[in-house]
Amino acid sequence: MSAVLQTFPLGFPWQTFDPFLFCVFHNDRFPKGNGHFGPDASLAGRVKGQDFAWKDGWNMYHGDKVPGFPGHPHRGFETITVVNEGLVDHADSLGAAGRYGGGDTQWMTAGKGIQHSEMFPLLNTERGNPLELFQIWLNLPSNNKMVPPHFTMLWQEDIPIVEVQEEGSTSAIKVIAGELNGHKAPAPPPASWANNPDNHVAVWHIKIPAGGQFSLPICNETVNRVLYLFEGGNAHLNDTLLKLNHGARVSASTKVTVAASETPVQLLLLQGRPINEPVVQHGPFVMNSAEQIHQAFADYRQDQFGGWPWPSSEPVHTEAKGRFARYIDGTTEEK
């Protein structure tokens, strides 16, 4: 039996498997900034508030003046925002805030409900402002869907990058969640499915040089393991060709060697033991039943998950000098 169980093209969003719900790759080549955190370019021809056309190589998304995602609610799952390049300004309904990027990850447990915004401030007014990030949704089991909201910052200085030598090549694996060769990722939020090592949750950013290879470690056979080839050329998974901009679900209990061709490749790995519970999703709410979804909408209409303490639906942190996080309890970190 082949170790490659399924291959598929990468759309928007990417196809995911339990315990993951959603994954998108944002790769925007934003122009220089206009001094007000937006693009120094005409917005003519864009559908304001709903711009996903990649005109000129970038989107405004739901932003009006600043690209990004203005305030919106979530309940019942977690968001993992992995920023390889560029910056994200976070603000939420509980008063927490942050600016992160350049290798940082924000891991937010929406739990019983939170509003947050994710804006992409274009700070550089002299040259372009490229942005590259993954937004990943990880489900919560039923007993944790209504926990209090929480977020954790995984600063790039604390996330291990593991160099693995194999057949004369050296690959670099950024371990955002999980463990590789004794190197553990920073702890996820306390209520996360990833917080139990028996669930084998892993989020890895894998870079393999031209002609190099990396063999995935053997894991439990119950685990869903998926690879997404998003940068470089084609690769081989054992004897199976994986084309650029394609994904593959592979056996976690069988040896799989990822081999690059004459071009370096980058892949995202998402792995975890499935939760195996009913999933009912309506927009930003993910619960176990239609009744729970109806209740989520009713609760949001009642108190809007804490309201919105910001002067705009798309706030940017104009006073910020660098990367920082101000948590729900008021404590602050600066980088």
Please summarize the sheet with the most strands: 7 strands, antiparallel
- The CATH architecture classification of the domain at 20-42 and 57-158 is Sandwich
What is the CA-atom radius of gyration, in angstroms?
20 Å
CATH topology of the domain at 20-42 and 57-158: Jelly Rolls
Amount of helix: under 10%
Unreliable segments (pLDDT under 50, ≥5 consecutive)? none
Shape: globular
**SSE arrangement, N to C:** EEEEEEEEEEEEEEEEEEEEEEEEHEE
The proportion of strand residues reads 35-45%
Tell me how many strands there are.
26
Q: Compute the number of helices.
A: 1
What is the strand arrangement across the widest sheet? 1-20-17-22-15-12-11
Tell me the name of the CATH homologous superfamily of the domain at 20-42 and 57-158: Jelly Rolls
Derived from helix and strand composition plus strand pairing, the structural class reads mainly beta
Name of the CATH first level of the domain at 20-42 and 57-158: Mainly Beta
Domain Pirin N-terminal: 63-138
Family: Belongs to the pirin family.
Organism: Psychrosphaera ytuae
Protein name: Pirin family protein
